[in-house]
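Forwarding the complex inputs:
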Amino acid sequence: MTSQSKPDSAHCVFVQLLDSSQGRPIQVWHFADQTTITIGRAEDSDIAIIDQQVSRLHAKLVWQEGTWHLISLGRNGTTVNDRLVSEVELSDQAIFRLGADGPMLKFRLTKAETGRTETVTNFDPSMIAMLAIDEERKLEEVQQIADNALFKDLLEKTQEFKARREKPVGE
Amino acid sequence: MPKIVSTHSFRGGTGKSNTTANLAVLVARAGNRVGVIDTDIQSPGIHVIFQLAESRITRALNDYLWGHCTIEETAYDVTATSIGTVDENADRPRIFLIPSSIKTGEISKILRDGYDVGKLNDGFQNLLSDLHLDYLFIDTHPGVNEETLLSIAISDVLLLVMRPDSQDFQGTAVTAELARRLGIPEMLMVVNKVPPGMDTVQLREKVESSYQAEVAALLPMNYEIVRLASSGIFVNRYPDHPMTLALQQVAARIMA
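Prediction (whole assembly, two chains):
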């Protein structure tokens, strides 16, 4: 492939999936040495997004004549600045949306980082890593409730309550 | 033997009532008699999803708890609006809704004066027997209080609805531990509002290992349910939506 048909190897593409309410990135894909990046619901898409508004092959990012182009292919269309587009040249930091109010993506051109020259898909691990249980605090709170007379009373009555399932009481 | 299914979440806004209503409809549509009781006395709302007009609610759970009527008198047949036309004489499917009062005076009165939780339990049992229910879904108030604990204690299945959010994660752990101490036979996790792009395999593993409970569904954050704005049953409106398919699996799990 010639240098004209391929993006500058010193640059690569980042595509960020943005949280629609806050606009912060919740997933990032990083590509180098690719001239076509597919976006869609299909699992084998370069950027796979499961969403009702996203078609199996919804859009493509294509390197053409020295610039990146967004080509919309999905049934629900693709918007840039709230305008439906079929094909548009993308500038650095451009934001586009799949479907009228579907997932929002940000396109970024950036210099390749050392050690990250291969195509990778990065999920922001902090999103799941932050989900943690403070066991000590949990047990403290549970104990406070379990020590309450109401809880003890309930514990005693539970069997009695369950037994009434077979013998309903009059009202 | 009929099953009692409680739906609970530690915080509000998890989609608990929508999940309850949609599961109840799916279970009823499978040919069952289903009751749905709104024990979220402080902030009732499930009647909106079932499109039960407030003007039709002449008696609510509050009236039963004050001894003004029987529990069956507070049950509204919502089969037509939530399932469709069913032969009048057919026993199944049927779906009944027991709403809480939406009158602010009645809400504050019951919060101020309290009520006999034992009577609430009697109400659950009488609903099962008098309405010949196969399933009773209890939509609880978020957080932990006496009626929540009672609902959990007498349930066959507890559905804990949470978002992938650190506050939900911690609070749900407290409820899950209390449920275990109360001897809940089956506890299922429903993770709702999962943002697009979140690694669902990692998330499922994290939730299952943290709570030592099965994840019955990971429901995607979706725009359609926001548009519906709680004014209808999602699974009826969007029968092929990934969320509907996931809820069908939970319903099948409940009926297993």
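The two ends of chain A are 83 Å apart (CA to CA).
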